[in-house]
């Protein structure tokens, strides 16, 4: 047994296993880092980071939806687990551990409906704006759309759960509505698209 008086060693951050340009899926399969699975995982990770930034800006303004954003980030970890478990090489134990249900999709829909009811009607194209919280949420929405574009081919190929794509699709709608809500609560003006004069 280890010496109880000795300080515990933290695991090293670097493993060097990806130095040759390959990485492992949850099923243990080695694939090139440019594989569509890792593209989707990277976009999902970037999305979580963007939402984290939006959450920090929103927290500074005292928005009550920050807890929802944290929950979304946790769900994106589950999205990543599902994506990292390609169904073509997954055993039943893998599938059971990383399955993704429709429940989070339905929760997003409830949140969207709740915020939408409080917003003024949309009468023009809105540009990402409305203060730092709102603009960061719009940026998160754009990253979410890219993550969705990376995930859809995996779902169509039967490698990922269709609910993952549904979740990302609904999440971008949620982030759009939330950006508008943040601007409204902060009293910030949303910039709208104005067609340039010819």
TrEMBL record:
Which residue windows does the record flag with biased composition (Polar residues)? Answer: 17-27
Pfam families from the entry?
A: Cob_adeno_trans
Residue ranges, compositional bias (Basic and acidic residues)? 1-11
Molecular function via GO: ATP binding; corrinoid adenosyltransferase activity
User: What domain of life is recorded for the organism?
Assistant: Eukaryota
One biological process term from GO is: cobalamin metabolic process
- Using the record, list the residue span of the signal peptide; answer none if the entry has no such feature: none
UniProtKB keywords: ATP-binding, Nucleotide-binding, Transferase
Which parts of the sequence belong to the Cobalamin adenosyltransferase-like domain? Answer: 13-182
Which InterPro entries does the record match to this protein? CblAdoTrfase-like (IPR016030), CblAdoTrfase-like_sf (IPR036451), PduO-typ (IPR029499)
As its record notes, the protein acts as a catalyst of: cob(I)alamin-[corrinoid adenosyltransferase] + ATP = apo-[corrinoid adenosyltransferase] + adenosylcob(III)alamin + triphosphate
Which segments of the protein form a coiled coil according to its record? none
Q: Where is this region: Disordered?
A: 1-34
Q: Does the keyword Transcription apply?
A: no
Family membership noted in the UniProt record? Belongs to the Cob(I)alamin adenosyltransferase family.
What's this chain's function?
A: Converts cob(I)alamin to adenosylcobalamin (adenosylcob(III)alamin), a coenzyme for methylmalonyl-CoA mutase, therefore participates in the final step of the vitamin B12 conversion. Generates adenosylcobalamin (AdoCbl) and directly delivers the cofactor to MUT in a transfer that is stimulated by ATP-binding to MMAB and gated by MMAA.
Q: Matching PANTHER family, A to Z?
A: CORRINOID ADENOSYLTRANSFERASE, CORRINOID ADENOSYLTRANSFERASE MMAB
Subunit composition? Homotrimer.
Q: In its UniProt entry, what is this protein called?
A: Corrinoid adenosyltransferase MMAB
> Can you name the source organism?
Cisticola juncidis
Task: Tell me what gene encodes this.
Answer: Mmab
């Amino acid at each position: 047994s280890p010496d109880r008086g000795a300080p515990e060693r933290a695991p090293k951050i670097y493993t060097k296993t990806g130095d040759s340009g390959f990485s492992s899926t949850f099923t243990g399969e080695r694939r090139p880092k440019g594989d569509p699975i890792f593209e989707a995982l990277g976009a999902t990770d970037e999305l979580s980071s963007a939402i984290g930034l939006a959450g920090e800006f929103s927290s500074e303004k005292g928005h009550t939806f920050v807890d929802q954003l944290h929950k979304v980030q946790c769900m994106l970890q589950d999205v990543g687990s599902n994506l990292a478990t390609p169904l073509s090489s997954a055993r039943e134990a893998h599938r059971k551990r990383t399955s993704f249900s429709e429940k989070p999709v339905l929760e997003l829909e409830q949140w969207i409906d709740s915020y939408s009811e409080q917003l003024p009607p949309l009468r023009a194209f809105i540009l990402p704006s409305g203060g730092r919280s709102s603009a960061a949420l719009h940026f998160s929405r754009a990253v979410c759309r890219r993550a969705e574009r990376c995930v859809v081919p995996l779902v169509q190929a039967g490698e990922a759960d269709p609910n993952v794509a549904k979740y990302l699709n609904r999440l971008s709608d949620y982030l759009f509505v939330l950006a508008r809500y943040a601007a409204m609560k902060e009293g910030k003006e949303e910039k709208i698209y104005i067609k340039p004069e010819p």
